[in-house]
Amino acid sequence: MTPFDLVEPNSVKEAIGLMEPDDPEVRVIAGGTALLLMMKAGVFRPRRLISMRKFADSLCGITATSSGELRIGAMTPLSALEHSPHVSRHAPVIMRTMRRLSNVRVRNVATIGGALAHADPHMDLPPVLIALGASVSVVGVAGERTILVEDLLTGYYETALAKNELIAEVRIPAPGAARSVYCKITTGSADDWPALGVAVALATGSATVKSVRIAVSAATTKATRLTGAERALIGSTADERALKDVADIATDEADILADVRGSASYKRELLRVYVARAVRAAMQAGGAR
């Protein structure tokens, strides 16, 4: 790695003041699990890193409101999501997802805010959070604003964050009657980067689908919500004919990306199969997957 300066501010306000919007070689570092790999590979050569370590406690923790909304500090390690009773009660799909996300050493260090700000399209959490309707609270020199996760991710490793903004908190609304699943398809080990990720949050009324959110990742340039497939499913009984139609719409709607884990045609077929499987799983009681 090339030499760089490391500064450790004592507060969020101080960190924001140290950020330089016009200098791409100045970067904030949270857990550092992705950023350090990029630095070692020579993909990113920073002039200065702004560490969030000293004020991490102020942005760490998981709470549940009386309405069932989850609030997760941006510096909360992924392993805390895996073991939190609040997450287990209100968003168990996250807990199940964590068990196959990389390994325990990474989960102990990587943070939820850093994972979202990094915007790697292969990550497991973004599609799950999109399906759950999550948003982030962002702070910067202009104040605080809220962005839906589906709007935060704008492209390949790109977000809607300004160059002098930080993610402070992730908010997940109460699930209500919705059941959620995440299907991760890997070409290597179970905890490898996925070739495709599909997340579904679904609620039924009588025998038909009342509401649904579908998100796809890894096969796309960014974690993406498939609103066209959602519209086709709402009001249906999610029988085999309806699922085939929804799967066809999903494959047409998604911007499929080829990479070392599969060709575009291979991933398109995976999406066709696993959108239907994920919806079936969500229709079952508990939605365990």
List the helices and strands and how they pair.
Elements: E1 5-7, H1 12-18, E2 26-29, H2 35-40, E3 48-51, E4 62-64, E5 70-73, H3 78-83, H4 85-90, H5 92-98, H6 104-109, H7 112-118, H8 125-131, E6 135-140, E7 143-148, H9 149-152, E8 153-155, E9 158-159, E10 165-172, E11 179-186, E12 194-205, E13 208-217, E14 224-225, H10 227-233, H11 240-253, H12 264-283
Helix pairs in contact: 10-11, 11-12
Question: What descriptors fit this protein?
Answer:
single chain, 289 residues, five-stranded antiparallel beta sheet, globular, 3 domains, Uridine Diphospho-n-acetylenolpyruvylglucosamine Reductase, domain 3, Uridine Diphospho-n-acetylenolpyruvylglucosamine Reductase, domain 2, alpha+beta, 12 helices
